[in-house]
Amino acid sequence: MFNKAWLNADQKKQVEAAIKEAELNTSGEVRVHIDGYCKEEVLDKASFWFEKLNMHKTQLRNGVLFYLAINDRKFAILGDAGINAKVAPDFWDTIKDKMQLAFKNGNFTEGLVEGILTAGMQLKTHFPYQSDDKNELNDEVSYG
To answer: pLDDT digits over 110-132, tens only?
Structure first.
């Protein structure tokens, strides 16, 4: 069984603060979803949660999901069509590699925060904040 306490209260606050910071100057949306197990291809499971969390319904299709399956030690970063059309083809892999290095060193929260903030910089570049922007998706960490 998956333990939601994988992130303690302070770590959860750090991650959610990073989401808010990443979204501060952009119309883009960032979500983090944590599961216990992923017995299928990790990108398939991330896609399932992307849709379940309604991330495909943002106006500019600029949502980014950080999906982690803790017990199976798998994770994926999934960007929607709008952001994927703007970033380099290896952009998500570059973030994933940095996160994986932090994770291997036991720095899970720091690695996740760094990934979120890096994604936020690209979102800001390609989808700058507009005066009529609204937060389209919840910023809280979700659990499966």
So the answer is: 999 999 999 999 999 999 987 77
Per the listing, tokens 């983090």 go with 32
Query: Cα separations (Å) of 16 from 20, 117, 124?
Result: 6, 11, 18
- Gap between the Cα atoms of 28 and 64, Å rounded: 8
The whole-model pTM stands at: 0.94
Amino acid at 52: K
Q: How confident is the model at residue 40 (pLDDT cuts 50, 70, 90)?
A: very high
Which among 105, 118, 142 has a CA at the least distance from the CA of 18? Answer: 118
Q: Strand locations in the chain, DSSP E? A: 29-35, 63-69, 74-79, 142-143
Question: Could you tell me the two tokens for 100?
Answer: 């994986």
Backbone φ and ψ for 129, nearest 5 degrees, come out as -60, 135
Burial of 54 (0-12, 13-18, 19+ CB in 10 A): middle
- Please check whether residue 60 is in contact with residue 23, taking contact to mean a CB–CB distance below 8 angstroms: no
CATH top-level class of 10-130: alpha beta
